[in-house]
Amino acid sequence: MRRKLIVGNWKMNGSLAMNAELLSGIREGLAGIDCDLAICVPFPYLPQCQAALEGTDVALGAQDVSAHAVGAYTGQISTRMLLDFGCKYVIVGHSERREYCNESDELVANKVQRALAGGLTPIVCVGESLYDKEEGRTAEVVGRQINTVLSVLEEREVCDIVVAYEPVWAIGTGKTPSPLAVEEVHAMLREQMIRKNPDAIECVRILYGGSMKPGNAEELLHMPDIDGGLIGGAALKASDFLAIARQA
Ligand code: 3PY
After folding, report:
1. 86: region left, alpha or beta (phi > 0 left; psi from -120 to 50 alpha)
2. What is the pLDDT of residue 128?
3. Any residues with Cβ below 6 Å from ligand 1, and which?
């Protein structure tokens, strides 16, 4: 049985004051939650979040990591640095980085490899654009993205990643595909991973991301291959974030 995982992606939001309120809301509302919970926050706020979450089971993560271990890479952040601030997870290949920072499938795969080598759990994002969807190319695009990652992993490493399916057209737009349409893509992703490692049927969690909110979480989270959510806007309000987690 795969335990559900709800991850907040704060994106480039927050301030020390805003975070303090959000973090205390999360701390105070954890009773009765029966799933794994994590927040992926902007780099400068990792120490604040690490201190605020101490003693809770809420895990911490970042939103990107360098593909390099150490050295002359101005502005980049290494796995070692993320571990120093208590990170367990790192989001890799979010569509906003693929689009605005020109991250290719190959770079995303290299970052996944580096995250694993450094002891972090990568949350690997895949998803099709509106154009791809309208052209009927969802399976092709998402399949290519996941296969590029799988091609650089050892068989045993497949169990060490989390995958997030985020249709680009559903991110920040309020639009969500139907639970059945999401389930179809998740089942296809799992099938690809099972081909590389049959244990993926049990060990890999596939999250859905893209305008998941309290009002649509329950039906999404009850589909057999949807193992949790990567939450954008709704993760910025403790009551919404926890309301989603309570439905997992
Ligand atoms: C969203 O839901 O907007 C996301 O991009 C989550 O990563």
Report:
1. left
2. 97
3. 9, 94, 166, 171-172, 209-211, 230, 232
